[in-house]
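call fold(seq) -> tokens
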Amino acid sequence: MLSCRTRCGRRAAWTGWGLLCLALLGLPAAQAQNTDTLRVGSKRFTESYILAEVIAQTAAPQLPQAPVVRQGLGNTAIVYEALRSGGIDLYAEYTGTIALELLQQTGSMTREAMNAALAPKGLGVAVQLGFNDGYALAMRAADADQLGIKTLSDLAKHRELKLGLSNEFIGRADGWKGLAARYGFGQQPTGLDHGLAYDAITAKQIDVIDIYTTDAKIEHLKLRVLQDDRQYFPRYDAVLLYRLDLPQRLPKAWAALQKLEGRIDERAMIAMNARAELQSVPFDTIARDFLAGGAKAGDSGQRGWVAKLFGPDLGRLARQHLLLVAVSVGCAILLAVPLAILVFPHVRLRAVVLGITGLLQTVPSLALLALLISWLGVIGTLPALIALTLYSLLPIMRNTVTGLVEVPAGLRQAGTALGMTTPQSLRLVLLPLALPTLIAGVRTATTIAIGTATIAAFIGAGGFGERIVTGLALNDSGLLVAGAVPAAALALLSEVVFEAIEYALRRRR
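ret:
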């Protein structure tokens, strides 16, 4: 039997792991309560990335500490939920989106009406930045000339044309459904990422895409923006959507942000988008140059994928990715192994529990993250860790159960014959024999977590997925590779580590 010191030490170790897990999970929420920090969010497209940096850099001189910029949080629903829950303080939004998508109002709304509707939610609209970035449909100009298409009504007559629309536009209240009803479109659009749509239309895989009217690639790719002759789309004037406590909490920063009123016109916004999408200039550099009075002459900002791979953010992203994987897999071990030990003698209960954990694996990661944000009221590391922990449960639990079940009956009976109690038999016979199979499950869970952790960047949790998300938004293959390669290298490194562990176990046996 184990001595009291050994039992207490083992219990303390397990307790320590649990407390560490809880502390790390609670850390983001604690950080979110820091009232001196300005937290700026953005959606997952070029213009929103740039505006987030413009907002942050404008306010920074009036803040006691550097602002936190949470880039690429996803679509409107996720960013809005982050704002409502206090995960961010403000972000750049558009009046048409606020009226139709967030407030479910038909027709245009004045700023006063928006503020009256948003006030019960603790939110407000202020600082009209000075440009309108509306939705529109576009097609190749040469095809439009050949077919005589100038308006959306003209497009509705050509049902043979293939439409490739962003998934958000297809699902929005002010998007495809209402547009199709207004114009009588009979086409069935294909959903794809906004950043990839330009490649698809250039390759002639699709004929029509939805665009933002300040997109830089419209002129560059010689696309024709079709006239909204039945005035379906409202104006999408860029404004700041913010939490009402912000002006009182950070009055000097809020006063600085007021100076952005009317400062950015359509031409300036198109030029900034072009620097990001066509010249690969970093978002923070574009914002800094704009606030300083314009782009630097001859500044192309072009970088190869190797330079992007070993960029200054590599260390930070690696730490974030490792934290996500290590904590989530560690928490999964603490949950899955005891639960597997508990249920493995009971065949029916075991099947039910494994079935539930298997069902969790079928929930799409982005959907799970969105649900967790809604339930928890926070964005960032906490929901990402919970999601990754849930995805790691199945391989660890299944392998633990399998390892225990496969222990030969003769060895179990030998332990009983030696007078061992059930806990002693479990600890001294069953678990040591099941350990290689259990470790194989942890190995699988770690590999899954490394890959799935890239999705965490969609809700501001960082990691190598941050580069992948930004690369998708910019359609920058070099940046995509710069995010994918370190994640793949981390997966290979984990395989080497687990191979060494299994080799050590084999030698010990």
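The longest strand covers residues 135-140.
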